[in-house]
Amino acid sequence: MTKALIIDDDVNILTTLELYLEDKGFDVVKATSGEEGLRQLRSTSPELVLLDMKLPDRNGLDVLKEIMASGIKTQVLMITAYATIDTAVSAVKMGAFDYLPKPFVPGQLDLVLERLKRFHRMEVEIATLKGIFSEGGILTRNQRMRKILQTARQASDSEAIVLISGESGTGKGLLARLIHDWSPRTGRPLVTVDCAALQESLLESDLFGHVKGAFTGALRDKEGKLKLAEGGTVFLDEVSEIPLAVQGKLLRFIQHREFERVGDPKPHTVDVRIIAATNKDLEEMVRDGVFREDLYFRLNVLELFLPPLRERPEDVTLLAEHYLKQSARLNGKAVQRFSEEAMVRLQNYTWPGNVRELINTIERTVIMATTAELNIGDLPPHIANFNPSASSETVFKSLAEIERVHIQQVISHARSLDEAARVLGIDPATLWRKRKKYQLD
Predict the structure, then answer these.
(1) Class of domain 309-394
(2) Is the N-terminal amide bond of 428 cis, ω within 30° of 0?
(3) Is the model more confident about 394 or about 439?
(4) CATH fold of 3-122, please?
């Protein structure tokens, strides 16, 4: 669980619960009335709702009824100073997970959250038995994806650096969040550094921090993302975009766990785990001299390659139906399903923008829909008119995908892995890393 909504008109209760839940790793949203709470529910889709029984504009049971009818997958904890057995039973019968009377102590909340975690694990296990992985925003029934996620879960308990590679839109950020949430560091910060969004000087300051007067515009001391993530995880998104000068300083931190703020020669230490992501081939960048080889080897302790959506055709239907229901609910639309012809077009399309493109497409289509069933005419023209037989298949393939397919073909025809390495023109150790990266047998 990562998002929590508190609906209560008592300011002290709001503040207390906010601090408590944030310390447990939740992103917290607050509301002081039933109507405001329902608006926040629809816009944020929280995994946990703490709902006061007595609100200034609504009865808590009425709000609970609307939450249950919304279709948003959430667990509701009723909180009230007006505790009676009757209202407790009514709330649970209507779908509340549990009931907590005021005043309460942190230990009581600890017990409820522990029960919620156990319940959540049971839901995950049931979905797994059905052949579907659904957690942390990642939804798949693809066997290759599930194998990668299993590897990620195993690695989450360690302190190893994880490098997540794959095309844009495949879910690298979601996987980084999952690894953090599965790890012993869950409850501590997960801090993202967008390495592609800042110039070299600003990226260095954003990562390591700076002191007042270090450069023009440095009007006060600033803590960097490394320090802000103390005890938690730093996610280096698009790590390939880090300039060479900053790469050296990052390497020093990884090796010695110390860094210097811009304008401050004093070394600082911090306890964080590093997860990095890239949509580029770092080995090729090393050969081109634009990425340090020693940093690459430090980052590539465990590489997880997320396959593009076009290689997971069984997930297109699963994801399309899931996001249709979610978008219809959030936008108040009566759309219920895809026609058979529309679903075929979605399955035939190659999705160069991957899951992110599919989500945006479904949301746009639902918003513009005028009937309960989405037909071909409701789809964007480039998808509705897409003809896979008339398209050049390689146009939509990344270099990594072409490399993966080629290596697999060579391995399947070679008499041994040593022979495959000779044919490919690489040493056996590099072939081993490539097989590990692409999950090749």
Answers:
(1) mainly alpha
(2) no
(3) 439
(4) Rossmann fold (3.40.50)
